[in-house]
Amino acid sequence: MDDTSLTVQVHYYSILADYVLAKDADVKVKQGTSVEEFLTYLTEVNPQAFKMIMMNGAKRASFVRVFRNGEFVAEENEQALVVDGDEFKLFPAISGG
């Protein structure tokens, strides 16, 4: 990427880390990328199994929790632009019984 790229830190948890084969990654994206576009990009560059967990059709799966800089990312906030140095945490919700 050129000088208009941003570096974003991503932390994967539980089965997402297993599919990506990493718990942490620095990801470069173009300046002007929205959170929604960033999450879509992650599903494109990671294994198909990762995409199957992250997505429910064209939308993010409701049981996957995304946090940006410590704040929960609600669906209505996914149009916000990613900023250099953002930190994302991706958690699949876990249930037990």
Describe the structure.
The chain has 97 residues and is α+β, with helices and mostly antiparallel strands. Helices cover 25% and strands 33% of the residues. The strands form two sheets. Strands 2-1-7-5-6 form a five-stranded mixed β-sheet. A two-stranded antiparallel ribbon has the order 3-4. The N and C termini lie far apart (46 Å).
Shape, per Cα inertia axes: globular
Helix content: 10-25%
Radius of gyration: 13 Å
Mean model confidence by pLDDT: 89
The description of the largest β-sheet is: 5 strands, mixed
Cα end-to-end separation: 46 Å
How do the strands of the widest beta sheet line up side by side? Answer: 2-1-7-5-6
Number of strands: 7
Number of helices: 3
Strand content: 25-35%
Concise summary:
The protein has helices at residues 15-20, 35-45, 48-54; strands spanning 5-12, 24-30, 55-56, 59-60, 64-68, 71-72, 87-92.
